[in-house]
Design brief:
39% of the residues lie in helices and 16% in strands. The protein is of the alpha/beta class and 530 residues long. Helix 1 crosses helix 8, helix 7 crosses helix 11 and helix 8 crosses helix 9. Belongs to the peptidase M20A family.
Length: 530
């Protein structure tokens, strides 16, 4: 064969191969798009009471009741503080007694359920079902709110504890976090009781009183009490405050939290003999500490994308269902399922270098700092401490710290927390997630008069902070969700003010939360898969 004919033959073969490869890649990516993010069918309750209650929720007279219920709870300033002393000693706890009186009067039928007060202000209700063979379900919220800084009171559009309703929104501290969850759940049960609903499955309600201040007096004690009453892994699943839904990439995504990051406040203490400032030693405590903190900044934790992370599952849903997701991001997500190079490129697209947050305080002979860590679900407290030790060890030795004093690393507030177990979203243990997903879709459709699947796409998510569920891990076999169906896209340009000035919640969003709780309870009561 001539050189010319050989070259021509090679070009043809290469062209065919290239064409085949491109077509195969396109088909592969197209198939993967549909497989990336499993969507379960919507789950509409068969009980006709669900539809009847839905009609009640949509009526103006019920809207008025809902406004009054939420507004009344906001008017009771149940602020929780980091420095709260023991219950019975610190008078700031007494406001929770006022809230309990309000709840008793506002929800007379709920008040007929079995109630145990745990550590005085923790509330534990049991709505006892008729079939004890069915595993109970735990629904939770917290009664407390973030304190309002007195210096900001005049910055609020309406007084922070007024519960003002402007015809569209309810304003005040707790309207979003988390009295809407507390009152939304109680409102749902009250209206179900009014309409004669009697569950076959037992539902337990646990309401802590200091979630915003670590939960050591509320949820910690509630967790112990429930473990004693119901036993280990007694609950089919747990639902606490958490994610909602909003539009992203041209589609509505709901993101129930299926995991939580761990937490560690690492205290760095440097001690030395001190001395007079006129003849300072070559390495002072403040100088050494400053260099140690710079070492943290110079050696940030590597930011890596892992296919085992919850966030990666969220990205897969964006790629599989987002209509307007940037093409380079979609391509990187799709290709990352089978290419480490693409996985790295995905991380490069999404992440920027993080920096640890530090707060320092110096004394003449001692200096210390607290470095906050939020721990990946793929890591642990021990991993973080080991890495931090290795990061600082070399510098401490080079600075001859041992000659001048000592360096200690410790858990600053004895409050370290391992990452939460990740709730299954597929496979044989995913029945609770499937039920929740179907409930979210049914609620979303019903509130808008829609029909069919995929009007809202459900994607696994992870909250940025920690919830009271950290004290409930032993109560369920890894089946914990952080979700209360808040419409995060309903702000219409007005900030919701969570943990800051002008906290508010659109009343339509609150009504949909109530609808969600009624749908969840009825669906769970009818299910035999969980």
């Amino acid at each position: 064969m001539s050189t010319e004919s050989s070259f021509y033959h090679y070009c043809i073969r290469r062209g065919v191969f290239s064409l085949f490869f491109k077509l195969a890649s396109t088909v592969l990516l197209s198939i993967r798009k549909e497989q990336l993010c499993t969507q379960y069918d919507l789950l509409v309750p068969s009980n006709p009471l669900w539809k009847a209650i839905g009609e009640i929720i949509g009526a103006d007279v019920f809207k008025s009741r809902a406004v009054d219920w939420l507004s009344g709870a906001i008017k009771v300033p149940t602020e929780s503080y980091d420095d709260l002393d023991l219950i019975g000693i610190d008078p700031r706890w007494e406001t929770f007694g006022q809230l309990h009186e309000y709840l008793f009067n506002a929800f007379p039928l709920v008040s007929t359920l079995s109630l145990t007060k745990v550590n005085t202000y923790g509330l534990l209700y049991e709505w006892t079902g008729t079939d004890s063979s069915l595993k109970p379900v735990l629904l939770t919220a917290h009664q407390d709110v973030v304190p309002v800084d007195p210096k900001t009171t005049e910055d609020w559009t309406f007084p922070p504890f007024s519960g003002h309703f402007d015809g569209t929104r309810v304003w005040g501290r707790g309207s979003s976090d988390d009295k809407s969850g507390l009152i939304g759940l109680l409102s749902a049960i009250e209206i179900m009781l009014e309409n004669g609903f009697k569950p076959e499955r037992t539902f337990v309600l646990a309401f802590g009183c200091d979630e915003e201040a670590s939960g050591r007096f509320g949820a910690l004690e509630l967790g112990k009490a429930m473990l004693g009453i119901y036993g280990r892994n007694a609950f089919a699943f747990i639902v606490d405050e958490g994610g909602g839904f909003s539009e992203k990439y041209g589609i509505t995504f709901a993101t129930p939290g299926v995991a939580e990051k761990g937490y560690l406040d690492l205290q760095v203490d440097v001690a030395s003999p001190g001395g007079h400032s006129s003849v300072p030693p070559s390495h002072t405590t403040i100088g050494i500490l400053s260099r140690l903190l710079v070492e943290f900044e110079d050696h940030p934790y590597p930011v890596e994308m892992s296919t085992d992370s919850v966030f990666y599952g969220t990205l897969q849903c964006y790629a599989g269902h987002g209509k307007t997701i940037p093409s380079d991001l979609r391509k990187a997500i799709l290709q990352s399922t089978h290419s480490k190079k693409a996985l790295k490129r995905l991380g490069d697209i999404l992440f920027t270098d993080p920096a640890n947050a530090a707060l320092s305080n110096a004394l003449p002979e001692q200096a210390n700092a607290v470095v906050n860590h939020r721990i990946s679900t793929l890591s642990s407290v021990a991993d973080v401490i080991e890495r931090d030790t290795n990061t600082l060890k070399g510098l401490a030795e080079n600075a001859s710290a041992s000659s001048y004093g000592s360096l200690y690393l410790s858990d600053a507030y004895d409050s370290s927390l391992e990452p939460a177990p990740t709730t299954p979203t597929s496979g044989p243990m995913a029945a609770p997630y499937e039920l929740l997903s179907g409930t979210i879709q049914a609620t979303y459709n019903a509130h808008r008069g829609l029909e069919g699947n995929n009007n809202v796409v459900v994607a696994p998510g992870m909250p940025s902070g920690n919830t009271d569920t950290r004290f409930y891990w032993d109560l369920s076999e890894g089946q914990i969700f952080r979700y209360n169906h808040r419409n995060a896209g309903a702000s219409e340009g007005i900030p919701t003010g969570v943990h800051t000035v002008d906290e508010n919640l659109p009343i339509e969003s609150f009504l949909e939360m109530i609808r969600f709780f009624t749908t969840l309870i009825i669906n769970t009561d009818e299910s035999r898969a969980v």
